[in-house]
TrEMBL record, chain A:
GO MF entry, a single one: monooxygenase activity
Protein's name according to its UniProt entry: propane 2-monooxygenase
Reactions listed under catalytic activity: propane + NADH + O2 + H(+) = propan-2-ol + NAD(+) + H2O
Species this chain originates from: Nocardioides donggukensis
Any Pfam family hit: Phenol_Hydrox
Keywords: Monooxygenase, Oxidoreductase
Coiled-coil stretches noted in the UniProt entry, renumbered to this chain: none
InterPro entries, alphabetized: Ferritin-like_SF, Phenol_Hydrox, RNR-like
Enzyme class: oxidoreductase
Annotated EC: 1.14.13.227
TrEMBL record, chain B:
Protein name according to UniProt: propane 2-monooxygenase
InterPro entries the UniProt entry points to: Ferritin-like_SF, MP_mOase_hydro, Phenol_Hydrox, RNR-like
Region of interest (Disordered), residue spans: 1-24
Reaction(s) the record says it catalyses: propane + NADH + O2 + H(+) = propan-2-ol + NAD(+) + H2O
Basic and acidic residues compositional bias, start-end: 1-16
Keyword Transferase: no
Coiled-coil ranges (or none): none
Keywords in alphabetical order: Monooxygenase, Oxidoreductase
Species in which this protein is naturally found: Nocardioides donggukensis
Membrane spanning residue stretches: none
Amino acid sequence: MTRQSVAMAHEKIQELAWEPLYHTPVSQYGTDYTFQKAKKKDPLKQVLRSYFPMQEEKDHRVYGAADGAIRGNMFRQVQERWLEWQKLFLSIIPLPEISAARAMPLLFNNVPNPELHNGQAIQMIDEVRHSTIQQNLKRLYMNNYIDPAGFNSSLRNFQNDYCGTIGRQFAEGFITGDAITAASIYLTIVAETAFTNTLFVAMPAEAAANGDYLLPTVFHSVQSDESRHISNGYATLLMALADEGNHQLLERDLRYAWWNNHRVVDAAIGTFIEYGTKDRRKDRESYAEMWRRWIYDDYYRSYLVPLEKYGLVIPHDLIEESWNQIWNKGYVHEVAQFFATGWLANYWRIDPMTDKDFEWFEYKYPGWYDKYGAWWENYSRLSTPNGHHPIVAEDVDYQYPHRCWTCMVPCLVREDMVMAEVDGQMRTYCHEACRWTDVEAFRPTYQGRETPNMGQLIGKREWETLYHGWNWADVVSDMGYVRDDGFTLVAQPHLNLDPKKMWNLDHMRRMGPLLSPNVVLNEMTPEEQQAFHADYIRGGPAGRPAPAEA
Amino acid sequence: MTTEVTAERSSPKPEFTDAEAGAKVFPDSTARRYNYYTPAKRKQSHYEDVTVEVQPDPRHYLAQGWLYGFADGRGGYPLTWTALKAWGVDRAEPERYPGSGGKGYEWPAHGWHEFRDPNEEWELTFYRNNSNVVRQINQNVETARQTKAFEQWNPNWVTFVERNVGAWMHVEHGLGLYVFANAQRRAPTNMHNNAISVNSMHRIRFAQDLALYNLTLSEEIPDFDGKAHVETWAEDPAWQGVRRVAEQLTAVDDWAEAVFAANVVFEPLVGELFRSQLVQQAAPGNGDFVTPTVVGAGEFDYASRDLRYTKAMFELLTNDKEFADHNKAVIGGWLEEWVPRCLVAARELQPIWSQPDAKPPRFEDGLDRAKSRFSGILSDLDLTDPKELTQ
Ligand SMILES: [Fe+2]
Ligand SMILES: [Fe+2]
């Protein structure tokens, strides 16, 4: 900038806003929160005159690194195990990013503070930046990595895939429902402030350890915008806290947002970091260790707890329970095992675990081998077609799980599964907190209070139902998970690209039909449903069916 | 900084994996293009690759539908958020039920997905363009400051700039935030919403350019009143018509109407009238060669980029193979409302034409030029002049 200091420039642009006199801006997004007009300083004082060159400079570094990676043959050193999971991650993440952009206007009318709107508009364009820069990274992978399948179809496949769909809530939670619940609490206070550290800092470190230094370059560049967004959220949160009447809603929304983010983000990123890496140095941090540091210490202890004195009711129980899930109940391991069980309904390849991996898991998570070792040995054994079915249809002491209606991750920690009849349908939930989200939080009344602006859980929330009774060959064809020979599957439970070792439609054709667990459950009598539930919660860990009653 | 290394450093060891494109031949080994959409031209463009289908559509691949909805149960990006229609939209969304499968309609399913931003704006182009603009403005203003160019200004011109050029910053700011940033939540495709968000930032940036230029002038010109623009915008009768229309634009519910009214009606009849027919014409005669460069940057963004995508967007709709007539009728209704509003605003602005010492070309001549520019845009869009234009 010229001589003008950033502070003066920022002070000056505050003169731009004006009170409408003749017409008020249209109100399109409702909230049950109330805000008093209050002068709240935009904490970051960003002026576009300096913002644009700053971002352009960051871009130079990103695109310079991209050129360097290609010239330096980065892909000769990239671990396929890792990059395959990027087919999932990079298919999901551009939508949450762009949805964050779309979410910003939800705040304009509801948060009566023009000074914050400036920061929100900059966040909007930051998010356009993130979305397109990530699409571009994926394009580069597609063009330069050995196996483009799955990258080339990502935006189609992620929309109907069960893992992609789990991630999609991360986007849709930002843009619909109560405007403050969505664009402030879910998006900025929890998703960005708590979980972007694992997304954009922990994950890139793992990428680098697997020979990919482009992902870190792009995602650190993305993360460098995040502190501004976190400040936007914080300023809005303080305004919300100023009104006593919001406290009950804040408590509700923090519970929902926390638990949903834990369920969704820890499932995906936990799997990438623990099961997508070849780096098995004993001193590299496990996902649990990272979580403890980034999320428990940095977010929970340092960010959330100090807000208690302003009247924020913090979901201590759910935060401790999330840790309990990760540390004692094997949440990430259960998810990775499930993702691998369903490999045939995906669009990337999942590498089997080896003795070296087992050793690391046992070191980091004592007792891991007794729970999961045998199953992963079976996964290896069944990875290339040899007269048997994919693992999901073989007897490997694994009970295919029911899906959680709310977070859409299956009910993997079997003992926690709960059921509820909603709108004439019996639904399963992975945990009481997910039942509460659907049955109590996302409703037009909450604890006796009218909440007419609260959103709804909608959609066909488990994919299996759409394909109930179908042959597997038709399922994967319909979903578009077939390579350009019209025969070989995109997904494989191994990394061998020899066509003779790859699974194809003939292998799928001879499997039995796909049955939707939810359809089957709803065909049962109430007594049978209760018996089913009693049995289900005695199952696990590692998906083991309940032992026969003594 | 310490260089002493006490223990062996632990770091991952690079491994030769040969995971490079072309290392092996197998099904899909050469399938290196995004295969879920059809490009507008023969080849898929870089812009399309980073933009198309990021915002999903239940009629394509979103088999399970949107997962979260508003209180009324609607999720995503309802097509009914505008009265305009694109071919195919009246076909029902594919129904899903046990065993239905997940197939959607063939790409593009409906006409909304045919829109491409002719500016091909995405991250790389956007930051490059806008950085260039702010750098250019900085340099121009800085050079003017060093060469004492502001001392050449006629005294009345100083007042004109502090009040009137100053007042314009409010228009850009209000429309940037509450029309365009707002509208980018509401259009049916990512192509629309990204283009609209870029438009939003052009305006917010232009507003800030004018504000910071105003700040420089407060520092450089002894009697320059840096707050005069606030009072002018709030109270000057000449500006109340503009303010009324600007506020009314933020009150529009239909996103396409808001974008159309702002970029197709308001900008030519009011925005360009003020900027091109008055400021740019009057400045040199009053000794000012700097203001035109600042105002010109915003003018260029509008004329060469924002109007360009807007025309491409509405051209598709007025030529739609199914709904051209419907759309023209809806837009005709918009024109009947917005043209008189904008003409009133333009006429109320007339007194400021007489404020500079060195007089600009006559108001009526400027307005005639603005009107003919406007009707040229309408004819490009296959729309006819509304009778209100002759008022
Ligand atoms: Fe982002
Ligand atoms: Fe759940």
